[in-house]
């Protein structure tokens, strides 16, 4: 049974005329008649009583008609669904990002994407790069914004560098300025400072601790274990200082003193990643383009 045969059958059933049905489906009348006969042979029953000038449905035709209409309607719905996805009227993007990237980079880009494609659902998962790489590998995410280098061993991912961001020191305006009041602070100046530190597995925690150890000291934690919003809140409350991305500090600077790190400073590289063996869906590719062109 072919889809085209069902179209021809419904056209004849609705017009009760082979010639008018052929005009309706834009096919020659002999071809339509041949397809109807082929359908009847396959089903083993006549579908129409063909009296001269009077076409009526047989019992078999009456039974087939609602089923054929439903099949054609479902096919039409499927065609529209696919077209809407292809034209980015509907769909979803599953994007993973570290909390600091969610705070600093994503709001403006996601707003622009949503304005352009309001029918696309945005599903955002926050997590550390280790967690996001694992979610990408198992197919739970389409794209992820991760910090390079990737954790090892890493699955086969394609990465494109998005930005290289400076890190800065934030402190409470009511607390003494770190580094003795200078306009910039060195990593070595953080020795003796009480640090507000992120939870284990957080990229910024690992980077900050490694930088302190490279200067020959172990960092002193006033409080540890928070996500980005919690860390900034603890700093505002005067519990200590923290090392955060410049973009986050700029967006969250209210109630914070921001001090740059002296050269060479500390930096991190953000990359856009997806699985190498599976192309992201079209909506995800469009978001990827907007992120790269931001």
From TrEMBL:
Keywords noted in UniProt: DNA-binding, Transcription, Transcription regulation
Domain HTH lysR-type, first and last residues per copy: 1-58
PROSITE patterns membership: HTH_LYSR (PS50931)
Gene Ontology terms, MF aspect: DNA binding; DNA-binding transcription factor activity
GO CC annotations on file: protein-DNA complex
Pfam families (UniProt xref): HTH_1, LysR_substrate
Cross-referenced InterPro entries: LysR_HTH_N (IPR000847), LysR_subst-bd (IPR005119), WH-like_DNA-bd_sf (IPR036388), WH_DNA-bd_sf (IPR036390)
Source species, domain of life: Bacteria
Family in the record: Belongs to the LysR transcriptional regulatory family.
PANTHER family for this protein: LYSR SUBSTRATE-BINDING (PTHR30346:SF29), TRANSCRIPTIONAL DUAL REGULATOR HCAR-RELATED (PTHR30346)
Protein name: DNA-binding transcriptional LysR family regulator
């Amino acid at each position: 049974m072919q889809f085209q045969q069902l179209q021809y059958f419904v056209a004849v059933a609705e017009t009760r005329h082979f010639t008018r049905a052929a005009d309706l489906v834009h096919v020659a009348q002999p071809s339509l008649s041949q397809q109807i006969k082929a359908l009847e042979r396959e089903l083993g029953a006549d579908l129409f009583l063909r009296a001269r000038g009077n076409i009526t449905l047989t019992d078999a035709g009456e039974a087939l008609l609602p089923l054929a209409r439903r099949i054609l309607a479902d096919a039409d719905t499927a065609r529209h669904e696919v077209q809407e996805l292809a034209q980015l009227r509907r769909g979803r993007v599953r994007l993973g990002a570290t909390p600091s990237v969610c705070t600093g980079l994503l709001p403006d880009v996601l707003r622009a994407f949503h304005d352009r494609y309001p029918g696309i659902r945005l599903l955002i998962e926050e997590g550390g790069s280790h967690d996001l790489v694992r979610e990408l590998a198992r197919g739970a995410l389409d794209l992820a914004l991760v910090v390079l280098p990737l954790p090892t061993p890493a699955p086969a991912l394609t990465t494109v560098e998005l930005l290289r961001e400076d890190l800065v020191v934030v402190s409470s305006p009511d607390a003494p300025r770190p580094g003795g009041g200078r306009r910039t602070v060195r990593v070595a100046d953080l020795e003796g400072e009480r640090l507000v530190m992120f939870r284990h597995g957080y990229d910024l925690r690992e980077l900050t601790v490694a930088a302190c150890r490279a200067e020959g000291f172990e960092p002193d934690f006033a409080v540890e274990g928070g996500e980005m919003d919690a860390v900034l809140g603890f700093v505002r409350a005067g519990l200590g200082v923290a090392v955060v991305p410049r973009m986050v500090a700029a967006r969250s600077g209210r109630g914070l003193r921001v001090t740059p790190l002296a050269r060479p400073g500390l930096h991190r590289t953000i990359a856009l990643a997806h699985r190498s063996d599976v192309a992201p869906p079209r909506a995800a590719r469009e978001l990827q383009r907007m992120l790269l062109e931001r």
